[in-house]
Design the sequence.
């Protein structure tokens, strides 16, 4: 009788004894073998006419203009081994830019590429391998990884080393920010995608080939990466001689908690080595005439730095700030025509007014040029993006706001309405101000 009574007791208690194990099993996601995610984004922009005392070959047109871009991306992931992942992103793009994508330091649409055109173009955006070495051991602290674009669900150690190699964007790894990083869902101006002065290695579509090594330990992370430069300034073809011409970047990150809210600060240093033109050399070579950057191209080194801050201010509010600078002696080789950059802003979720999936964003940027870059433009020179023929220099300032309205009838989709107010376009007080209105449609699944 006693044995039978004990068996009944154990049978009754068994579900409760196994409950913690069952809960743990539910919290521990099975590592995904593969996943497939997709996105599509359409951005329409317009600007009215504005005042301009004069215009040059690379000026933003003072007439009213319209512009659009469309991108569609497939994010395909495959787990090759327990800690080895392969990702492939075919991408379709088309678009028409205002003034052929010239006339501004901070261009208004981060989705528009330098090779954009009205005909749809399909290409390989990314094809890379990610290898993770978990350092914590069996008893180390782990964290769950959610299924997402270019991310397979599973687990990883908080102390780890990650190697990423192949075809990708430098900004996939470096200078990320929770509130200002993606023109498809956040701020659209190039000044908020990354440091405006960060002339990171990329082809004219924004991608490169190379490798990055990351080390994570506790709240710290260190990253180093080397990537291919384009063969020519802002060109599509990449220079594969990685020992001669390259873009190097180093980043140190520290996560922290302030008043119970999560934040992070990142310190970035970059160094580019490529065949570039120098502004002072172009001015000297012109001997009083109009300087031409193409006549003085030679092997040069361009370097710069940046500080990136993101801080949660509440359950639904976050802020960001970036400060960056390049030496400003060489031409813009792969990103924006900006030598000094400051940006900051806030992002607010709509929970306070009963729209938890909506987002309100407001940001400010101040872009500047080096003294030699100013002198080059004032003498009539033109860069890849800007050149008014003359220059009454002032820093270019940008104020951008957007409201992203979640579409209740379509999951993970939103329509955004935005406004950008740009003073001193292309650093010229004799032109502007410019107002750009935007409508953006975005969906992902």
Sequence:
């Amino acid at each position: 009788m006693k044995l039978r009574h004990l068996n009944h007791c154990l049978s009754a208690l068994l579900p409760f004894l196994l409950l913690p194990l069952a809960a743990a099993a539910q919290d521990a996601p099975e590592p995904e073998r593969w996943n497939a995610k997709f996105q599509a984004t359409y951005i329409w922009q317009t600007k009215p006419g504005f005042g301009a005392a004069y215009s040059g070959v690379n000026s933003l047109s003072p007439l009213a203009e319209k512009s659009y871009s469309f991108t569609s991306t497939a994010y395909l992931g495959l787990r090759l081994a327990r800690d080895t992942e392969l990702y492939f992103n075919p991408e379709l793009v088309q678009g028409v830019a205002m003034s052929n994508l010239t006339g501004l330091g901070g261009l208004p649409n981060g989705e528009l590429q330098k090779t954009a055109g009205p005909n749809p173009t399909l290409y390989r955006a990314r094809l890379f391998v990610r290898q993770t070495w978990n350092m914590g051991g069996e008893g180390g602290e782990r964290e769950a990884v959610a299924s997402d674009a270019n991310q397979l669900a599973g687990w990883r150690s908080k102390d780890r080393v990650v190697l990423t190699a192949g075809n990708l964007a430098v900004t996939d790894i470096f200078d990320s920010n929770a509130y200002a990083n993606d023109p498809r869902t956040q701020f659209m101006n190039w000044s908020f995608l990354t440091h405006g002065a960060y002339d990171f290695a990329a082809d004219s579509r924004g991608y490169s080939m190379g490798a990055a090594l990351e080390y994570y330990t506790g709240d710290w992370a260190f990253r180093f990466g080397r990537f291919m430069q384009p063969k020519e300034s802002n060109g599509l073809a990449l220079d594969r001689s990685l020992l001669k011409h390259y873009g190097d970047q180093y980043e140190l990150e520290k996560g922290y908690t302030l008043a119970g809210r999560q934040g992070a600060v990142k310190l970035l240093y970059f160094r580019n080595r490529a065949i570039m033109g120098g502004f002072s050399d172009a001015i000297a070579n012109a001997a009083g005439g109009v300087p031409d950057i193409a006549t003085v191209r030679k092997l040069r080194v361009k370097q710069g730095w940046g500080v990136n801050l993101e801080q949660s201010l509440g359950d639904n509010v976050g802020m960001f700030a970036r400060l960056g600078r390049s030496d400003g002696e060489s031409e813009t080789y792969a990103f924006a025509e900006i030598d000094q950059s400051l940006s900051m802003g806030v992002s607010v979720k709509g929970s306070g007014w009963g729209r938890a999936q909506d987002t309100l964003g407001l940001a400010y940027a101040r872009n500047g040029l080096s003294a030699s870059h100013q002198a080059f433009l004032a003498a009539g020179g033109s860069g890849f993006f800007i050149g008014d023929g003359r220059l009454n220099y002032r820093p270019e300032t940008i104020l951008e706001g957007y409201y992203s309205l979640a579409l209740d009838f379509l999951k993970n989709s939103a329509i955004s309405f935005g406004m950008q107010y740009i003073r001193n376009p292309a650093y010229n007080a004799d032109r502007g101000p410019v107002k750009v209105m935007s409508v953006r449609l975005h969906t992902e699944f």
